[in-house]
Amino acid sequence: MSQVVGNTALAYARVWHHVDASERVLGKLAERIAIVLMGKHKPIFDPSADCGDYVVITNARRVKVHHTMFPGGLKEIQYKDMMRRKPDEIIRKAVSGMLPKNKLRERRLQRLRIFEDEDMGVFQHNILKRWEDGTLAQPAPQSKAPSA
User: Domain containing 101 — which CATH number?
Assistant: First the structure.
């Protein structure tokens, strides 16, 4: 019997999630990503511990923006200009705004990888979970082959 009290290293194991941002609304997408980076989707979540996962986002150029007509502040850089220059920065700023403002924020943002198009380079080998509709779906159960 184990003498370990509390969560072990296996409980804090990090998983790589893939998100296709094409035709997704920026605010809702950033909210879901922030939840995964914080680790709130895990049963071992603790606000003082960094137990979140990695997130890889592709197709950052194709994200949609929805205006709720809520009066905002002065925008120094327009969305269309930012999309031309640095489309990954739009998603990064949105996710950064959704994360808690504490010492863990920068470390959580380091686990976010954003790509402008489909190509994600060497990170494609790390992906364990994919988001099809923006939700955190459980992996499909694998069918067992009949034994002979």
Answer: 3.90.1180.10
